[in-house]
Specification:
Low-confidence stretches: none
Oligomer: single chain
CATH topology of the largest domain: Aspartate Aminotransferase, domain 2
CATH class of the largest domain: Alpha Beta
Number of domains: 2
Largest sheet: 7 strands, mixed
Number of helices: 14
Mean pLDDT: 95
């Protein structure tokens, strides 16, 4: 018989939950979770197969629907998030698409903050309207704009906080109240905050999505995503899409991400500590026109950040005096910090959003969001902060 590590899961602290939560052991009693690399499952008889398919037997049917290793990942992260249910996906964008598509039908309306990752904005602004779903983009930090944008047919509100890449903080609890008054679901992309620093469901959100590719993996190994919400919505709206459109996570990726969850609290705490030191250093440099870090009192939404986040962030953004030329010179002069559009990695990574992650939204939209040609986004890794500061200082000298 398989053995489930369920004892104490309701009272475990997050760090314990991330090591033990949801673990299911085979009869061999393995220490590390098993990778069930299988497409399908066999049955003791035709009657057993019938029972499995009609729901009388809750076992597994096909790995496109559910898989034991993937289920362990889902159980572990839903325990951390305090969600009733979770569904893992092949990538973070698959999770965003799944959450939005499960919330709308033709004739509905979505309100979203303008400050979104380029691919998220594409779904809201371009893809949904193709299928008869109207969308409105607003300044997410302005609660009056949320209220004004809501219509009788609004079924979903969507935001990320902190935003990518300018780290704006949106008042999740206040937007959740607006969503509830409208009878709409609030979907929050919580990637930049991580589940260690922010709990959107506790703030009133209905759905939380993650790109597990980022901090949850944390070591640049695989893609993954997850949607978390209440049991009824996941079962009635999300699962049919998972079954029939196939965005499910692979068992191998789930196993890698289970290993990532075990060290998530330690990694995020260290990365955020280093990010705070780097932010303080950059704030004192004349060549930096603007420094944005949620853990500092000079952040435009510092009060909201203190209220809804328990840590600053592993991410920071800064604007170089001299625009794109200075930003490129600085980036090219770095030795330790690597150029990459990924984030949340053990390695510190820097990117120029205007020419990479947000290139597709166009110059006008970037200007509206404050993404100038001098803006750089830094994801702080696990290197010694002294080495990171030394690398940044010598690169600034080169500029």
């Amino acid at each position: 018989m398989a053995h489930n590590d369920k004892n104490g899961s309701q009272t475990w602290q997050p760090a314990t939950q991330l090591v033990h939560g949801g673990t299911t052991r085979s009869p061999f009693g393995e220490t590390s979770e098993t990778i069930y690399l299988t497409q399908g499952f066999v049955y003791a008889g035709a009657e057993a197969a019938e029972a499995r398919f009609n729901g009388d037997d809750p076992g597994f049917v096909y790995s496109r629907y559910a898989n034991p290793t993937v289920a362990m990942f889902e159980d572990r992260i839903k325990g951390l998030e305090g969600a009733e249910a979770a569904r893992a996906t092949a990538s973070g964008m698959a999770a965003v698409n799944l959450a939005l598509m499960a919330s709308v039908k033709a004739g509905d309306h979505v309100v979203a903050a303008k400050a979104l990752f380029g691919s998220c904005r594409y779904i809201v602004e371009t893809l949904l309207p193709r299928f008869g779903v109207e969308s409105t983009l607003i300044d997410g930090t302005d609660l009056d704009q949320w209220k004004a944008a809501v219509k009788p047919n609004t079924t979903a509100l969507f935001l990320e906080s902190p935003t990518n890449p300018t780290l704006e903080i949106i008042d999740i609890a206040a937007v959740a109240d607006i969503a509830k008054s409208a009878g709409a679901r609030l979907i929050v992309d919580n990637v930049f905050a991580t589940p260690m620093f922010q709990s959107p469901l506790k703030l009133g959100a209905d759905v939380v999505v993650y790109s597990a590719t980022k901090h949850i993996d944390g070591q640049g190994r695989c893609l993954g995503g997850v949607v978390l919400s209440d049991e009824d919505w996941i079962t009635d709206e999300v699962m049919p899409l998972v079954k029939h459109t196939g965005p499910h996570m692979s068992p191998f990726s789930a196993w890698v991400l289970l290993k990532g969850l075990e060290t998530l609290p330690l990694r995020v705490a260290r990365q955020a500590e280093s990010a705070g030191q780097i932010a303080d250093f950059l704030a004192s440099r004349n060549s930096i026109a603007r420094l944005i870090y949620p853990g500092r009192d000079d952040h435009p939404q510092a009060e909201i950040a203190r209220r809804q986040m328990t840590g600053g962030s592993t991410m920071l953004a800064f604007e170089m005096d001299g625009g794109k030329e200075a930003a490129f010179r600085f980036t090219n002069a770095l030795n330790l910090i690597k150029i990459s559009n990924n984030l949340g990695d053990a390695k510190s990574l820097i990117t120029h959003p205007a020419t990479t992650t947000h290139q597709s939204i166009g110059e006008e939209a970037r200007a509206e969001l404050g993404i100038s040609d001098g803006i750089l986004r830094l994801s702080v890794g696990l290197e010694d902060p002294a080495d990171l500061l030394s690398d940044i200082e010598q690169a600034l000298s080169a500029v």
